[in-house]
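For reproducibility, we list the full input for the tryptophanyl-5'AMP complex.
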Amino acid sequence: MKFKERVFSGMQPTGSLHLGNYLGAMLKWIDLQKTHECIYCVVDLHAITVWQEPGELRHAIRQVTAAYIAAGLDPEKSILFNQSQVSAHAELAWVFNCVARLGWLNRMTQFKEKAGKDRENASVGLYAYPNLMAADILAYRATHVPVGDDQKQHLELARDIAQKFNNDFAESIRTAGYEDGQFFPQPEPVIVGPATRVMSLRDGSRKMSKSEPSDLSRINLTDDDDTIAKKIRKAKTDPEALPSEIEGLAGRPEADNLVGIYAALAGSGKADVLSEFGGRQFSEFKPALADLCVARLGPIAQEARRLMADPAEIDRVLVDGANRARIIAEPILGEVKDVIGLIRAAS
Ligand code: TYM
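The corresponding predicted structure, in tokenized form, follows.
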């Protein structure tokens, strides 16, 4: 089967989004919107793999939706919704729990990092999380998945699950009319640009993340202009001037990170940034970076705040998106049920 090109991606509503989410994934999402059918999800079922305070979760789902729209995702053009409103995600995830192998999940580095030493006490959901992620993508037969570098391993697992499903049910899939046996596509990761892995502003060896205790380590999409400028000013650097060539960034993780951030925000490449700033000190580069950050992120924060003043409108967008998502996912889930031998009401 020739699969129609379709984009799917998602973000967890655990706290507010940060610069890593924006540069690593969302900039690409906005681009793809111009050329592709896009489905962008607020993955609330993923968020509850770790306990969330219910009021805060509700707030975070709306806040992430507001950030999506404020950053430039168009709810008329793309489908924006929260995962729990489309039950096909959870249903297909169960099927995939029965397709994926324990050995595959045991290799997932993100589970090891998140569960830490107290593995016995981690939720079963946190362990099975990559199967739900595969279901998110394959419930729409999405072909392209724009994400940051940290999601690469999960996407490889989604591809393995698609492949194994196609193999396990090969005969039934052919009988259902898929002559080439391809029921699910192999979703392609789209991991591109100068900032696929944005690092902490306090430690160039750690990823920028919501779970880092120090707020100075990340720029939140909700930060005001002064806070953004302060965080850039305080960002860790080394004492050398910036190099003129990319090779000169090797072994200088903090410099590499700030140059990557600048390039991604400016829509250019690291080489362009170095040809402008090579030989200059951080005392000159940082104010330029802070100005660029404020110019790009300030309006997003402002617009998101404006949208958050009308939560009913945000909820309306989510309900509308979920209705449109269901129209795509439900027939695919129905076919999955047929292929694996379950009985459902005739449609
Ligand atoms: P999440 O919520 O942790 O992150 C959302 C997106 O932001 C990217 N990202 C980063 N990119 C660069 N540098 C960083 N420091 C950084 N931190 C986060 C992530 O790679 C991601 O693209 N499992 C996913 C959510 C998910 C999903 C999906 C994604 C659930 N189902 C289906 C794609 C398709 C996650 O936890 O992302």
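The pocket of tryptophanyl-5'AMP is lined by residues 8-12, 20-21, 24-25, 43, 46, 133, 136-137, 145, 147-148, 150-151, 154, 196-198, 207-209 (CB under 6 Å). The mean pLDDT is 96. Both points were considered when choosing residues for closer inspection.
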